[in-house]
Amino acid sequence: MIVLKVGGASVGSLELPEEPCVVVHGAGPQISEEMARRGLEPQFVGGRRVTTPEVLEIVRESFAAVNAQVCAAIGPRAVPLHGDEIGLLAEPRPELGCVGTAIPSAPPAIEAALAAGLVPVVTPMAVGPLNVNADEAAAALAVGLGAERLLFLSDVPGVFHDGELLESIKAERAEALVGDGSFEGGIVPKLLAAAHAARGGLVAEIGATAVVA
After folding, report:
1. Does residue 137 contact residue 101 with C-beta atoms inside 8 Å?
2. Domains: count for the chain
3. pLDDT recorded at residue 10
4. Are 126 and 144 in contact (CB under 8 A)?
5. Binning pLDDT at 50, 70 and 90, where does residue 172 land?
6. Which of 97, 175, 172, 166 shows the shortest CA–CA distance to 129?
7. Which of 10, 121, 125 is nearest to 60 (CA)?
8. Mean per-residue pLDDT of the chain
9. Coil, strand, or helix at residue 130?
10. CATH code, 72
11. Contact 28, 42 (CB under 8 A)
12. pLDDT tens digit string along 45-71?
């Protein structure tokens, strides 16, 4: 089984693998656009969005809209699932507001959909409700569900370091480079999530870059 993380900007080009698949999606661009429309300034710490109760409502609305788009792109086999309603777990991060760090879990609704030959499409909102980084949510579900592979689809071809597209990177080195500030922005949670999954025994790929234990 594969967990596929789809970026909010990558919905239109969605192609599913033949194996059983769980899709986790973000909605970063949509959230930021709606915040700007309402005169709110996005704030990020370590790639995580600072989420006030007001922002949380925007997050929920944006997740719902993207979820519907992803389900439409997949077709009748898609099952829309909202993480906070099905038991996606996270450790609260109150210093960031209504935010959590996803922890491995295996929500029964996802397992039931897979058993029925369907494609669960999951929003990264955790019980609380808490806004969870979609990359972290995908990794936590991949580990919790016992997936074989975790694939990140995004609008970048892979991980670049010193101007070079990396074919592979070890989890330990990825974490060290994040720690010394070599990477910034959205690639940070993606790399850390992939490293976490790789340490859990999964094959983790960010575009063309494999993250290995």
Report:
1. no
2. 1
3. 60
4. no
5. very high
6. 97
7. 125
8. 91
9. strand
10. 3.40.1160.10
11. no
12. 877 899 999 999 999 999 999 999 999
For residues 113-144, one letter each, b for 16 or more C-beta atoms within 10 angstroms of the residue's C-beta and e for the rest, the string is bbeeebbbbbbbbbbbbbbbbbbbbbbbbbbb
Q: Is 15 exposed, middle or buried (0-12, 13-18, 19+ CB in 10 A)?
A: exposed
pTM: 0.90
- CA-based torsion, 40, 42, 45, 51: positive or negative: positive
- Band (pLDDT 50/70/90 cuts) for residue 12 is low
Rounded-to-integer distance, Cα 159 and Cα 115, Å: 34
Q: How many angstroms separate the CA atoms of 182 and 174, rounded?
A: 10
Least confident of 10-19, 24-33, 72-81, 170-179: 10-19
Q: Checking DSSP bridges between strand 44-45 and strand 48-49, what pairing results, if any?
A: antiparallel
Is the CA virtual torsion 139, 87, 102, 34 positive or negative? positive
* DSSP state letters, 4-27: EEE-TT-GGG----SS-EEEEE--
Which residues constitute the domain of residue 39?
A: 2-212
Q: Could you tell me which residue, 59 or 10, shows the higher pLDDT? A: 59
> How many Å apart are CA 148 and CA 167, to the nearest integer?
19
Cα separation of 94 and 96, whole Å? Answer: 5
Q: Which residues make Cβ contacts (< 8 Å) with residue 117, sequence separation at least 6?
A: 20, 77
Q: Which residues pair with 82 in a beta bridge?
A: 123
